[in-house]
Automatic annotation (TrEMBL):
<dbReference type="InterPro" id="IPR036872">
    <property type="entry name" value="CH_dom_sf"/>
</dbReference>
<dbReference type="InterPro" id="IPR001715">
    <property type="entry name" value="CH_dom"/>
</dbReference>
<feature type="domain" description="Calponin-homology (CH)">
    <location>
        <begin position="4"/>
        <end position="117"/>
    </location>
</feature>
<dbReference type="Pfam" id="PF00307">
    <property type="entry name" value="CH"/>
</dbReference>
<dbReference type="InterPro" id="IPR050540">
    <property type="entry name" value="F-actin_Monoox_Mical"/>
</dbReference>
<protein>
    <submittedName>
        <fullName>MICALL1</fullName>
    </submittedName>
</protein>
Amino acid sequence: MSEKRGLKALEEWCRRVTQGHKDVSIRNMTTSWRDGLAFCAIIHHYCPELINYDALSKENIYQNNDTLCVVLFPAFSVAEKELGIPALLEAADMVECVEPDPLSIATYLSQLYQYFEGKDGRYAKMYKPKSFQVGGC
């Protein structure tokens, strides 16, 4: 079997790291991300102390994409403030669009992937959230 590349490989990585998270099913690079749970699940997979995943609800798209986590930062802001990943998306974008822009989703996911899994990714070297001094990530 040949090695997956590009968007298919990114989608497969997303499926792998979100597996077991309630109400997350990665089927595509648009509607699978709209409710925000998959973004939260990726961050939670690597850094569970940054996102209180159990407090999220599939029905509350705005809250999931702009959720309060343990450190009281909105979800997209967690990646920006704690991980240094620019917030390319906003909660309002996800609420207003029935089908979010796949290129924006893929670009943002690529940044998360490079951070957590890339050979030169900051997480691979060492990660200590700015708001935490002990445990986790």
